[in-house]
Structures are given as C-alpha cells and as structure tokens.
Amino acid sequence: MGKVICVGLGPGDPDLMSVKSDRLVRASTHIAYFRKAGYEGQARRIVEGMLRPDAIEYPMEYPVTTEIHFSDPEYNRVMAEFYEVWAEKLAKLAETETVLVLCEGDPFFYGSFMHLYTRLRERRAVEVVPGITGMSGCWTATGEPITWGDDVLTVVTATMGEEELTRRIRDTDALVVMKIGRNLEKLKRCLTAAGRLDTAWLVERGTMTDQKVHRLCEAPAKVPYFSIAVVHGQGRRP
C-alpha cells in the first residue's frame, strides 16, 4: 500500500525548505497541490525546477475563494464537497502509490491540507512533514525579534469581527495578523483603536524574491493575500 505525505515547504524561499521536504519533493512521482483556478499556485511555484521529469501533477483547484463569504452556508457546502472529492481521489491513489501533497508554510498552521487530513487519516496512512511558518519568515524580514522575555504572542486572522480583533490586538504584547488581503482597512481601524498602528509592520510575500517590508500605516491600498502584519513585543530585555 502507498500513503499520503504532506510536506511543509516553508515561507516561500526554496532555500528555507527542510532537508526532508526537499528530498521528498525531488523523489516523488505523484504531486498534488492546491491552487486558485487560473493560477499556478504558491506551493507549486516554490518547487519550480525541483520535480522529476516523469512527475504526475494533480492541481486541486478551489471552487471558490473570496466570491462567497466564509460565513455563508453555501461556502461551507461547496468547500466541504471539494475536500471530500479530493480526499477520495487521494485515498484511491494511495491504495498503490505514495502521493505527495505540497503545502506552503506548515501544514498544520492554517493550512488547507488540514481539511484533507481529517478526511484521510481513517482511510490511509498519512504523514505530515512540518515546515517553517510564513509568519516566522515575515517577522525575521523586519530585522527585529518578535518576542522578548515574558512577552505573550497572539496570532489572529484579519477575517475576524472588528470588535473582537481590536480586543485581541489590545490585550497582547506581540502580534501576528494573517489573512489580510481585502481586510487591510479593517485591520488599520482595529490597530488604531488599540493604539498599535504606529508600531505595526506589513510584510508582503515574506522571504520571496519580490518581498516588501514597510510600516503598516504606509502600506498601499491593496496588498497580496500572502501578506502578514506584525507588532513586536517590547518585554524584558537583557
């Protein structure tokens, strides 16, 4: 019998991929990865030039991304069906083959693979290879430590409700904000209300060749999906 292996590819720079992930990517015949319809996909872009010539690719194209809000029951229905279909396809393939699923960052940290994992683990052997998170690559890109001493680090998503997001920002020492995209203006309002806007940084496409780092208050009107905001802790220092 085969199995399903999900490899964390790290924050974007192929050099930040683990040795194990690199070895598996170069050796595997069956490669699956998520992408938006009409796009190459970030995970696939990271491994460009690494796949063996006879590798068979399985692009898993999301049926929706931002067209329907995630709170809409239709979004949940469509996405659940999508994950179930692909879980069945991968389970079938893994009857006889080992199939590699690519995941940017770490698979268990806001990764889409989690939805396949919960459906696959009772059907087939599943292995997960961790990776450096995107947030780690982004706070390193700012050139400042994210936490000191007893600082509390909070990781939130900009898709949260405005009141709750503001509270979380106000109540922490150090902060990471994921999934910004269209929520940039809301995030600015929340940071302003919490008194943290002037100390917030925005990193676009962290560790990649087109990386951009700037103060969040100076950010452009539109930022890519692969953007992360950070507020550094200022706790106990030597």
TrEMBL record:
Residues 3-215 form the Tetrapyrrole methylase domain. It is an enzyme of class 2 (transferase). This is Precorrin-2 C(20)-methyltransferase. Its EC number is 2.1.1.130. It holds the Pfam family TP_methylase. The keyword Methyltransferase applies. It comes from the Bacteria. It comes from Defluviimonas salinarum. Keywords: Cobalamin biosynthesis, Methyltransferase, S-adenosyl-L-methionine, Transferase. Pathway: Cofactor biosynthesis; adenosylcobalamin biosynthesis.
